[in-house]
Design brief:
heterodimer, A: about 260 residues, alpha+beta, 9 strands, about 30% strand
């Protein structure tokens, strides 16, 4: 008597996801260097108008104390450079004049990519940091929950696993289950694969692409911020010098027409 | 009289180009220096004919000698 048996089995396998084909460690390093340079560029431009201020860093946020209140329109200028700027009152800081806390999303992005960043050493050649100011700032005054959701998402285990694989030049190994349909008839056996049940390949590849996109977006945003910040710096100074400022957008370039009043 | 004007162009890479109009002599350089102080780095400049105008005017005295 013939007997037909049909059943499904699950075979556990290891799937290798090669992220390095999309993003190599050397490319990631270059991206991090470029992001660090963006922070330097922005803060360098900003620091030029802060010569009379005391500056310190706490948790990679810049603390600026303009104790003579001589810097005009500082918050607006800092924000035009794409920075988050919070003015803290004399009552909460106990510091004379105006005090600002400045936070840059790019710093978080670099931290998520490199696992470390120190704004103070990054800017050490450009800004004379006032160490005494550090102790006067309570951590509660710092900007919290700041930043861009996409950049914060890079802190997740998925992205960190990808970043670490890129850094170590390794593929990501994940267990997968292949479902196989088995048919046995008169001692013969046929197996037909029904596909992989829980592949994470596309999830990781999509996330790696997303990582690239987030870095690229920051690059584009930085370029725009440098233009906007420069425009704001010049406009503010021109107004102080007695000019009327007219702005024109000339084929993607900004044209400021300053007319002496 | 022409308005005193400065036209500033900022390109998409943040490079700045500024040109003065209606200003003569070193005044235009002083005005640009005040405006661009600390904003522009790695600068280069090119003087327009107006820059030399005052200097030329100063030397325009002609003495007539009757021997």
């Amino acid at each position: 008597m013939s007997e037909i048996r049909e059943y499904t089995i699950e075979i556990r396998k290891v799937e290798e996801i090669n992220i390095n084909a999309l993003l190599e460690n050397s490319t990631l390093e270059k991206m991090c260097d470029s992001l660090c340079q963006m922070v330097v560029d922005k803060l360098t431009k900003l620091s030029k108008i802060l010569k009379a201020c005391d500056i310190a860093t706490v948790n990679n946020q810049l603390i600026v104390n303009d104790n003579l209140s001589v810097v005009t329109d500082f918050k607006n200028i800092a924000e035009s450079f794409g920075l988050t700027c919070k003015e803290i009152t004399k009552n909460t800081s106990g510091l004379k004049g105006k005090t600002y806390i400045i936070y840059d999303d790019i710093v978080d992005l670099i931290y998520n990519l490199k696992g470390t960043i120190d704004v103070e050493s990054l800017m050490g050649n450009i800004i004379d940091f006032e160490q005494a100011l550090k102790s006067k700032i309570n951590n509660e005054l710092l900007i919290s929950n700041g930043g861009n959701k996409e950049i914060n998402s890079l802190n997740s285990s998925l992205f960190q696993e990808i970043i670490s694989a890129v850094r170590e030049n390794k593929s990501i190994k994940k267990e997968i289950i292949e479902e196989v349909f088995v048919e046995e008839y008169n001692g013969s056996r046929t197996e037909t694969s029904m596909g992989i049940k829980n592949s994470q390949h596309s999830k990781y590849i999509e996330a790696a692409k997303k990582l690239n996109d987030i870095i690229q977006e920051q690059n584009n945003f930085h370029k725009k911020s440098i233009v906007d910040g420069t425009k704001c710096l010049i406009s503010t100074r021109a107004k102080q010098m007695g000019y009327r400022v007219e702005e024109k957008n000339n084929a993607g370039n900004i044209e400021l027409v300053l007319v002496r009043l | 009289m022409e308005d005193k004007k400065i036209v500033v162009n900022i390109d998409s890479d943040g490079n700045i180009k500024a040109e003065t109009f209606g200003m003569e002599g070193v005044g235009c350089v002083e005005e640009l220096t005040k405006l661009m102080r600390d904003v522009a780095t790695n600068t280069s400049s090119e003087h327009k004919p107006e820059f030399y105008k005052n200097k030329i005017n100063n030397d325009k005295k002609i003495k007539v000698k009757n021997d």
